[in-house]
Design brief:
Elements lengths: L1 E5 L5 H10 L12 E8 L2 E11 L2 E9 L8 H14 L5 E6 L3 H6 L3 E3 L12 H4 L6 E6 L14
Parallel strand pairs: 4-5
Antiparallel strand pairs: 1-2, 2-3, 3-4, 5-7, 6-7
Length: 155
């Protein structure tokens, strides 16, 4: 059975395994602001996504699904789980940086912005501070996101 849930204490090595298996950077995942959502299939962690929360702003990071489980909409599922987690904590905006997955995140409602547009309240985020020159910065306005009939429609 597929389950999305917050990571439990002691699951760091499992999260690290998924990130390494999918070649997603493990730099900065120890941020005290970072919380992970995990995707489980029959008690095995097969996907992860992290979010740093700075008051009412979030930074999505480290989205990864093990290769054997791709193509089943699990990536969008785990991102939506993180968005729901953030929404329940009154987060209003979600930022991310990506080098390869801009189209994927656009389908979920994110828009590409200039790096100068990043809210200064999330300036502590190493995921945004240390992103590469070729990384795209994206933003999602979370207010009302789950009120729409189709939450991934262009916003």
């Amino acid at each position: 059975m597929i389950i999305f849930r917050p990571a439990k204490p002691g699951e760091f090595n499992n999260i690290l395994h998924v990130l390494k298996e999918t070649s997603v950077s493990t730099n900065n995942i120890n941020s005290p602001f970072n919380t992970f959502i995990v995707l489980e299939d029959n008690s095995k962690i097969i996907g992860v996504a992290g979010i740093e929360i700075y008051r009412d702003i979030g930074v999505l990071n480290s989205v990864a699904i093990l290769p054997a489980y791709r193509g089943q909409q699990l990536g969008s599922g785990i991102v939506k789980s993180v968005l729901n987690f953030a929404d329940r904590r009154n987060v209003k905006k979600i930022y991310l940086s990506t080098e390869k997955e801009e189209a994927f995140f656009k389908k979920l409602g994110f828009k590409t912005i200039d790096k100068q547009e990043i809210d200064e309240r999330c300036s502590e985020s190493t995921f945004l501070k240390n992103c590469s020159q070729k990384a795209k910065i994206m933003l999602l306005n979370l207010v009302g996101y789950f009120d729409k009939p189709c939450s991934h429609a262009n916003t």
